[in-house]
Amino acid sequence: KMESLTVGWIGTGVMGSPMCGHLMDKKGYKTLVYNRTKGKADDVVEKGAEFKEPQEIAKEADFVFLMLGYPHDVEAMTLGPDGIVQHMKEGAVL
Q1: For 52, which DSSP code?
Q2: pLDDT at 2
Q3: Could you say which of 4, 17, 28, 56 is the most buried, measured as most Cβ atoms within 10 Å of its Cβ?
Q4: Nearest to 51 by CA among 82, 92, 84, 10
Q5: Is the pLDDT of residue 16 over 60?
Q6: Of 19, 61, 63, 94, which Cα lies nearest the Cα of 85?
Q7: What integer pLDDT is reported at residue 3 of this predicted model?
Q8: 33-84 pLDDT, tens digit each
């Protein structure tokens, strides 16, 4: 059921925070968020998102969105030594 989906959002800066917030406003999914600078996630946390570490998000989320600055950031977050791909639950979408 779409209503019971959990969305993970990694990167809640200038672009990520409003996009994540919009998804929360329109669909009401349970939302887990992470940002290197925790304070940049405050807006979406105040709307009801839960701040978690990326690996925890990967284990719980059905869909994971990344809004990161550079290709090397994406590579490190997904495929690095503790990248999220190795922690994602079966059937999850990145």
Answers
A1: -
A2: 64
A3: 17
A4: 10
A5: yes
A6: 94
A7: 64
A8: 999 999 999 999 999 999 999 999 999 999 999 999 999 999 999 999 999 9
What pTM was computed for the model?
Answer: 0.93
Beta carbons of 74 and 61 less than 8 angstroms apart: no
* Cα separation, 67 vs 20, whole angstroms: 10
Measured between alpha carbons, how far is residue 84 from residues 48, 64, 65, 74, 75 in Å? 23, 10, 11, 10, 10
CA distance 10 to 1: 23
Mention every residue, 6+ apart, whose C-beta is less than 8 A from residue 31: 6, 7, 8, 9, 20, 23, 24, 44, 48, 49, 50
Q: Tell me the C-alpha distance between 5 and 68, whole Å.
A: 23
